[in-house]
Amino acid sequence: MPADESTTPQPAPRRIVVLAGGVGGSRFTRGVLAAWPQAEVTVIANTADDITLHGLRICPDIDTMLYTLGGGIDEAKGWGRRDEGWLIGEELAAYGAEPTWFGLGDRDIATHLVRTQMLGNGYPLSQVTEVLAARWLADLPRLRVLPMTDDRVETHVLITDSDTASGRRAVHFQEFWVRLHAAPAVEQVVFVGIEQASPAPGVLDALAEADLILLAPSNPVVSIGPILAVPGIRGALRTAGAPVVGFSGILGGAPVLGMADKLLPAIGVEVSAAGVGRHYGPRSGTGILDAWLVDAADEAAAATLAAEGLPTLPMPLLMTDPAATARFVTAGAAFARPPRPAA
Ligand code: GDP
Ligand code: CA
C-alpha cells in the first residue's frame, strides 16, 4: 500500500536481529546494514557447522561472517581469507596428517589458534567471538555477532554407505559437504548436543528487544535449522514483539548455492520456496513467520501460501550486491510493517 496523507510509514527499525549461516547469511547481512545505515544489527550465527581438526576449533559460519563484514573475505570464493597462503597445509600433508580434505589456509589458521587457545583457557565461544570481532568489526560497532549457543553442537549427517554392515554411516556435516561433495543419499540430519544447549548470552535479550527480526536465506536445514533447534530460541521468536520476516534461499525450485536440495528431502520438506515457507510456518499458526519473501520466479507460490495464512511477497531475491539485497530486505520489512493510519 503506497503511503499517502492518510498513512504514516513505519519508522526505520533501530534494533534488528538476523538469523544467519555463513556465505548466504553474510551477504544478506551486508544488505541489511546497507538498508538501514543507523540501525544496530545483531547476528545470531549458526555454530553447528563447527568442527575440530588438527586440534583447532573451527567455526566456519562465524568466521565467514567476520571476514565478510570486516573486508577479509576471499570475495571470489565467498569464504576463507583473501591473499591466503597454504604453507601450513602443505607441511601437514607432508606428515600425512589427516584429514587433508579440509583446506586450512595460513591466515585462517591464526583465527583458529586464537579461538582454540581461548576456549582451552575456559572462555566461552561468545567471548572468544567478541575478541575476534574486535579486530574484524572495529569500524562497524553497530554490528554484533553472537554464536547461537556457547555449548558444543555439531551437525552429523546419516548417509547411505553400502560398505558398512548397517548400510549407513554418520559423518560430520563438513565431511559430507567438503569431502563427499554432498553426493551420498541422506537419511537423517542430527544436531548432536542440541538438547543440552542453551542460547548464548545476549541471544534471547536481542530477540526480545528487537524491532525487526530477519531470517536470512541461509540453508533452512543446516544453518537456520540448528539455530531454531536451540531450546528457547524458537519460543523467543514466537513471542517476540517484532515482526519476523523470512527470505527464501530456494529460487525457482533450486538453491542459489549450496546443498539445501540434498538436505530438505531428508527432513521431509519439498525443495521449493513454498516448501520452506510452510516448514517455517506462519506465526498466526504454529510457526515463526509474519511474512515470507520468495523470488519473482516463485510468484505462483506466493498466492498459494497467502491463501494458507502465510503473507508472502514475491520479488527478485538475488543478492547480486548489497544494494540489491537492501532493496528486498526493505521491501520485506515494509510488507511486514505496513504504513499506519495517520493519527
Ligand atoms: P553457508 O553456511 O556458507 O552454507 O551459507 P548459508 O547457509 O548462510 O547460505 C546458503 C544459502 O544461501 C543457500 O541455500 C542459497 O540458496 C542461499 N543463497 C545464496 N545466494 C543467494 C542469493 O543471491 N539470493 C538468495 N535468496 N539466496 C541465496
Ligand atoms: Ca555453514
Note down, in words, how this protein is organized:
The chain is of the alpha/beta class and 343 residues long. The chain folds into 2 domains: 15-151 and 195-337, 3-Layer(aba) Sandwich (Rossmann fold), CATH 3.40.50; 154-194, no CATH class. Helix content is 35%, strand content 19%. It is built from 13 helices and 16 strands. The strands form 5 sheets. A 7-stranded parallel β-sheet has the order 6-3-2-10-11-14-15, sandwiched between helices. It has a 3-stranded antiparallel β-sheet with strand order 8-7-9. Helix 12 links the parallel strand 14 and strand 15. Helix 2 packs parallel to helix 5, helix 4 runs antiparallel to helix 5 and helix 11 (273-280) runs parallel beside helix 12 (299-307). The longest helix is centred in the N-terminal third of the chain and has 15 residues, at 106-120. The chain is globular. It starts with 6 loop residues before the first strand and ends with a strand. The model has no long low-confidence stretch (mean pLDDT 95). Residues 21-22, 46, 49, 60-61, 223 line the site of calcium ion (CA). The site of calcium ion (CA) has 7 residues, from helix 2.
